[in-house]
Design brief:
alpha/beta; Rossmann fold; 2-enoyl-CoA Hydratase, Chain A, domain 1; six-stranded parallel beta sheet
Length: about 425
């Protein structure tokens, strides 16, 4: 059978065996009137007064929005927020839209246009968070491990802090959205490095769709609550980036409700582990770089049998990722050596993504079909896939020879929007 796989802003087709399991998100109808749903959620929020009652004339307001790597539909969710603030008497000049980049690079002008649209971009102050610029941060608290947590000063100096986000399963934070908009969204580098350190990433509860006992999720939420988030607006999306749910109000109540919706859509039972798993990183913008596409590898690992193989389809039009990520990948000769190095070294920029990638590669082989050259793929300890069907045929022949039987195949066309869970597993 032919299955289209999101790749950049288009698709690539894969020819799969007729008995392959094609796992997709649970069918969830998109909201017919998304704008009206956002306005209703703002008027009748969860555990909070309406946004217009929280805001007032003379207030400075900071709205945290995601960077270009997240498909947050700001054209739908921001106008109702801005209208509510205007109705409450907040001046336009007192509103700052803060792009929560975490440790990602700053947004380019064309990306700001894509994130916010021309009208909002022209009318409001827009600032990129810079986690490396300590002069732009203020101390918030000391974490239980002794780490000093600093956040963006524009955010902390606002009278009203509004955090927006898109809630989906996350490879080590459990789910995105909620407190993740603050930590790492607008946090300083030292705090992010500690939250994403090797010990935290290696914790057994720091994984897909886990929140209780997940130290990364719990610290993210704790920092956000300590920063006094005034209002949270989260959405869930389907595989076509259409809104399936709107959740507004108190940070915990809104985020928990969004997590419940994301779990209903994304957690999908499987009867067994599979010898070959084909996966995407959901196409653009999630597959801009290899760094982001580690999510696809990691979610595929939830369905792959030990010694199996993963074929990741991700465009990576902007290359491997940051210089630090690439340098760390190249620093050792194998994934096993990388894991040993990371376990003995202090936290380094982007080590978490290298660690997750190496954990997957220590368990199975990973092929990548992308726009990256063979040398770039192989330098990252991955196997080069020049073509989806040709590579899949090669992988299946190798697995058949090793197993003495036809290999079982599973496909995840929508990457991390579909999290495989063995039937009966908690």
């Amino acid at each position: 059978m032919r299955v289209p796989l999101p790749y950049g802003e288009g698709t690539l087709d894969a020819t799969l065996p007729d008995d392959a399991l094609v796992l997709t998100p649970a069918r969830t109808p998109p909201l017919a009137g998304a704008d009206a749903a956002v306005r209703a959620a703002i008027l009748t929020p969860l555990g909070s007064p309406p946004l217009a009652r929280l805001a007032g004339a003379g207030q400075r307001v900071c709205i945290v929005v995601s960077d270009v790597t997240r498909p947050l539909p700001n054209a739908v969710i921001l106008p109702p927020v801005l209208d509510a603030l205007a109705a409450a008497g907040v001046r336009r000049d007192d509103i700052t839209l803060l792009i929560g980049t975490g440790l990602h690079r700053p947004s380019r002008p064309d990306e700001r246009l894509r994130i916010l649209g021309p009208e909002i971009l022209a009318r409001y102050r827009v600032v990129d968070h810079d986690a490396r610029d300590a002069s732009a941060h203020r101390r918030l608290m000391t974490a239980a491990d002794g780490t000093e947590i600093a956040l963006n000063a524009v955010y902390l100096d606002a009278h009203l802090r509004i955090v927006t986000g898109f809630v989906e399963p996350h490879l080590f934070a459990g789910y995105s959205g909620g407190g993740k908009g603050v930590m790492p969204g607008v946090a300083g580098a030292a705090a992010i490095l500690a939250n994403h350190g090797a010990r935290m990433i290696g914790h057994p509860k720091a994984t897909w769709c886990a929140t209780d006992g997940n130290p990364i999720f719990e610290q993210m939420r704790d920092v956000a609550l300590k920063s006094d988030v005034g209002f949270c607006l989260n959405v869930t999306l389907d595989e076509r980036q259409r809104i399936t749910g709107v959740f507004a109000g108190d940070l915990v109540q809104a985020h928990d409700a969004a997590i419940a919706q994301a779990a209903r859509q994304s957690l999908r039972p499987i009867p067994r582990l599979y010898d070959v798993v084909v996966v995407t990183n959901m196409g653009y913008p999630a597959d801009l770089v290899l760094y982001q596409s580690v999510k696809g590898m990691s979610v595929a690992a939830q369905a792959v049998a030990p010694g199996g193989a993963i074929l990741l389809v991700a465009e990576c039009r902007e290359g491997v990722g940051g210089a630090e990520y690439a340098a760390l990948l190249h620093a050792e000769a194998s994934p096993h050596a990388l894991l040993a190095r990371l376990g003995q070294s202090p936290a380094a920029l982007d080590q978490w993504q290298v660690q997750v990638q190496a954990m997957v590669q220590a368990r199975c082989d990973v092929w990548v079909r992308s726009s990256l050259p063979r040398g770039g793929i192989e330098a990252a300890h991955l196997r080069f896939a020049p073509d989806v069907d040709r590579t899949l045929k090669e992988i299946m022949e190798m697995q058949r020879a090793a197993l003495g039987r036809p290999p079982s195949v599973c496909a995840l066309p929508y990457g991390q929007l579909t999290v495989p869970r063995l039937s009966g597993a908690s």
